[in-house]
Design a protein that fits this description.
Oligomer: single chain
Order of helices and strands: EHEEHEEHEE
Number of domains: 1
Strand content: 35-45%
Structural class: alpha+beta
Helix content: 25-40%
Strand order of the largest sheet: 1-5-4-3-2
Number of helices: 3
Number of strands: 7
Shape: globular
Radius of gyration: 16 Å
């Protein structure tokens, strides 16, 4: 049985997190959101003690995968629950880093657009995202 590893990436914006997960390849229909945290399940269908508000069920993560989830904490940030197994496969360090990059982009873009600014995105050859914000007064 693979145990879950707790990660605190500092995410606060639920929609930016969902947009980031879609950007790394998950269909929006595969991402559950819940007002109350629900239990996560292991690869054998066993209920785990970890609970989450945003969940990608194991059948969408990969063969022999566990559920992956993000639990909203009392301070409004999200704690990620990713099994040790999944952190070496679908949610490897590169994917986790890409989720952080996509999260940052979507959070900034939404914030700037609400201020009436334009946001342009460019993917650089090294995989980084360049963001150009216009409309400052």
């Amino acid at each position: 049985m693979s145990h879950y590893v707790e990660c605190k990436p500092g995410f606060k914006d639920q929609q930016a997190l969902i947009d980031a997960l879609v950007a790394v390849g998950f269909d929006r229909s595969q991402i559950e959101t819940h007002e109350e945290a629900l239990a996560l399940y292991g690869y054998q269908g066993d209920t785990r003690p970890q609970r989450a508000h945003i969940i990608i069920r194991r059948q969408h993560v990969g063969q022999a995968a566990n559920d992956v989830g993000w639990e909203r904490l009392s301070d409004g940030t999200y704690r990620a629950w990713i099994s040790e197994y999944d952190s070496r496969h679908r949610f490897n360090p590169e994917t986790q880093n890409r989720i952080k990059q996509e999260y940052a982009y979507h959070a900034v873009a939404r914030q700037q657009r609400t201020l009436g600014r334009t946001v342009q995105r460019r993917e650089l050859e090294n995989g980084e995202i360049e963001v150009v914000i216009g409309g400052y007064r």
